[in-house]
Write a structure and sequence with these properties.
By secondary structure, the chain is of the alpha/beta class. It contains 12 helices and 9 strands. Helix 6 links the parallel strand 5 and strand 6.
Length: 333
């Protein structure tokens, strides 16, 4: 039976900027966190593409991946994800071909189709192509072609990129992404850390429709899950109010820097806002190592997940480091 001891554990970093901290502070903490979880045995460290969101500093995702890979030795580093419709597949093939050449055997390319921002910023990102919504699957096929060994007479080549193998992952929070990952025979990562509503249905579709590919003979399920671990259940619940405040800001259209925890969220949100936030954070796990072990075992048993992609967005860096440390300890209980 799958449980926390058998599943792989990995990190999703949004490079969140805390109130009172600088961008440089944020990037330094991401580096320190990656080095910390590498020693703890985490499988991969992914960074997510977002734009024009105050408090999230991972817009130049490929650059940050290189920064983290440069300061680590063994942990896999990649995107969770690159929002492919924002980019030319050629650019992504070149960027990740470069990264894989610099850090061979350690680079992952997780791909999503959401813009990672608001509609106005999306138009600014995509320029003249903003009105042309290319099919996500077609973009991935183009990317596959550019990563394949160049054919004789091929006019457009990714240099570097052509002939370079970079593992790809499909990210999503919908049934469409599950079907696409199944059809392409790729691993599937569901965004349970912010949109868990369709997760179980998506996993069922992915597994039932999965078509073996050259690299993956069996389905591989990855589950995004928000976890805040602390030395006591009470402290973990308290620290998690920073995440709840961040999601409250999302639904109110008032995104801001990562906020300190508070003693009572009921003084901040209305009953309707609380219900909305709790639906988005339906998979939030808080507690001591023992409590976290019990809760994550139940999630893994219910979903059959092969790997957890864990967010743990506390306000203070030291609390975040401790949270990932306790999650690693929970695997041994």
């Amino acid at each position: 039976m799958k449980n926390l001891s058998t599943a792989k554990i990995s990190v999703l970093d949004l490079a969140k900027v805390a109130d009172g901290k600088t961008l440089a502070d944020t990037y330094a903490h991401s580096k320190q966190l990656a080095q910390h979880v590498e020693k703890l045995g985490y499988t991969r460290f992914w960074l997510a593409e977002h734009h024009n969101i105050e408090g999230i500093a991972s817009a130049a995702t490929s650059i940050l991946i290189g920064y983290i890979a440069e300061h680590t030795k063994t942990i896999r580093v990649g995107s969770g994800g690159i929002m492919l419709p924002n980019h030319s597949p050629l650019i992504i093939a070149e960027q990740f071909g470069t990264l894989e050449s610099l850090y061979p055997g350690r680079i992952d390319l997780g791909l999503g189709r959401a813009p990672g921002t608001d509609q106005q910023t999306m138009r600014a990102l995509r320029g003249r192509n903003a009105g042309q919504e290319d099919d996500f699957g077609d973009l991935i096929e183009e990317l596959n072609f550019l990563f394949a060994p160049a054919e004789p007479g091929q006019k457009i080549k990714a240099v570097p990129g052509a002939g370079i193998k970079v593992p790809k992952y499909i990210l999503g929070s919908s049934l469409y992404s599950a079907q696409l990952a199944a059809r392409m025979g790729l691993p599937y990562a569901f965004a349970g850390h912010f949109a868990p509503a369709m997760m179980m249905q998506a996993f069922d579709i992915y597994r039932s429709m999965f078509q073996p590919s050259q690299d993956y003979k069996e389905p591989y399920v990855m589950m995004g899950v928000p976890v805040v671990a602390a030395d006591t259940d009470e402290k973990a619940k308290y620290l998690a109010t920073s995440i709840q405040q961040a999601f409250l800001g999302i639904i109110k259209g008032n995104r801001k820097l990562n906020s300190p925890p508070v003693d009572d969220m009921d003084k901040i949100w209305s009953p309707m806002e609380r219900e909305h936030v709790q639906s988005m954070l339906g998979m939030l796990v808080t507690g001591s190592a023992k409590t976290v072990r019990e809760k994550l075992d139940k999630f893994i048993e219910a979903t059959g997940a092969d790997e957890l992609i864990i967010t743990s967005d506390t306000y203070l860096p030291e609390d975040r480091m401790r949270s990932y440390e306790l999650i690693a300890e929970a695997r041994k209980l």
